[in-house]
Amino acid sequence: MLTVRAPATSANLGSGFDVFGVALSRPADVVRVEKADRTTIEVTGAGSQYIPEDPEKNTVGAVAEALSAPAHIEIDKGVRPASGLGSSAASAAAAAVALNELYDRGKTRKELVPIAAKGEAVVSGDAHDDNVAPAILGGFTIATDDGVRTVDADVPLVACLPDIVVSTRDARRVVPDGAKVSQLVETVGNAATLTTGMHRDDPDLVGAGMYDSVVTPARAKLIDGYDDVREAAFDAGATGVTISGAGPTVIAACHEGDRRDVGVAMLDAFDAHGVDSQVYQTRIGEGATLFD
Questions:
Q1: pTM for this structure?
Q2: Which backbone phi and psi does 66 adopt, to 5 degrees?
Q3: Could you tell me which residues come within 8 angstroms of residue 49 by beta carbon, excluding any fewer than 6 positions away?
Q4: Nearest to 84 by CA among 160, 19, 140, 183
Q5: Residue from 9, 59, 74, 120 carrying the catalytic annotation
Q6: Are strands 250-253 and 240-243 parallel, antiparallel or unpaired?
Q7: What is the C-alpha separation between 9 and 78, in angstroms, rounded?
Q8: 1, 49, 174, 189: least buried by Cβ within 10 Å?
Q9: Residue 266: is it exposed, middle or buried by C-beta count within 10 angstroms (0-12/13-18/19+)?
Q10: Dihedral pair phi/psi, residue 28, rounded to 5°
């Protein structure tokens, strides 16, 4: 039996819709695999009651099929489904790394990214690399049609997960069909700023580059209290605030010394709207880790 820990991730980061992603140091999924004649799945942990164990309906089942690697797969969910923290991607990434090793398929980490994306598509409906890439590779990732580029960044982050459910499918339905040229220019500039900040491990540049006037405002309407939570985080010292992935998690960049204050401010702001939430004081971390 092999065990792999794969991290939660935050995609988009505001200005990098369907392109940017980061691995988070916490929370994470743990997946255990053992060779078998056919694939079977057992799920425990956060939100496990909502996750199908049928291999045809589970992310890891699609990964096992793509790698021709039948196995008994145990998933211990640390990343809640429909959280905006790459829950399905974490399971798919962990399974891809584990099964590749178990069956000695010889795939590189980058070659495993599109395989894991096929698994995530079972849940989200689309095969995107922005979550699975950082879950496998770690760090800050830039996923394009030409492949994935990575930056070994280290920036403090605060992720606040409210007790609200926003499905990826619903979040995609509200994305605008178009944008003004001025908005595109602004987004490109912010994405460049964020990328520079990642290279420099600079929370101020990363935060400044998170702003997005196209997708984020549309999705914010699905998260009760978002505007007040964002404002509270900035007042507490955040350098940038945006929606993590499809939401409802709100993620903030900040300096190390401000993480606690930012987290408390976000919790209090959601509470003022009658919404329970939990905070992860996290940072950009490693990708999937294999244990014997």
A1: 0.94
A2: -65, -30
A3: none
A4: 160
A5: 120
A6: antiparallel
A7: 12
A8: 49
A9: buried
A10: -160, 160
Beta strands 277-283; 20-35: pairing state = unpaired
Q: How many Cβ atoms are within 10 Å of 233's Cβ, its own excluded?
A: 27
pLDDT digits (tens, 9 = 90+) for 60-87: 999 999 999 999 999 999 999 989 999 9
* DSSP string computed for the chain: -EEEEEEEEEE-TTT-TTTEEEEEEEEEEEEEEEE-SS-EEEEEETTGGGS---TTTSHHHHHHHHTT--EEEEEEE-S-TTSSS-HHHHHHHHHHHHHHHHTT----HHHHHHHHHHHHHHHHSS--HHHHHHHHH-SEEEEETTEEEEE----EEEEEEES----HHHHHHTS-S---HHHHHHHHHHHHHHHHHHHHT-HHHHHHTT--SSHHHHHHTTSTTHHHHHHHHHHTT-SEEEE-TTSS-EEEE--GGGHHHHHHHHHHHHHHTT--EEEEEEEB----EEE-
Tell me what pLDDT residue 125 has. Answer: 66
Mind listing the pLDDT tens digit for each residue in 80-132?
998 999 999 999 999 999 999 999 999 999 999 999 998 777 776 666 789 99
Annotated active-site residue in 59, 168, 193, 239: 168
- Sequence-separated (6 or more) residues with CB below 8 Å from residue 105: 67, 69, 99
Q: Residue 2: which of 68, 83, 95 has the closest Cα?
A: 95
Give the distance from CA 233 to its chain's centroid. Answer: 20
Which segments of the chain have a pLDDT < 50?
Answer: none
Query: Is 44 a known active-site residue?
Result: no
Rg (CA), the chain: 18
Determine whether 168 is an active site residue.
Answer: yes
Q: How many Cα atoms occupy the beta-carbon half-sphere of 24 within 13 Å?
A: 32
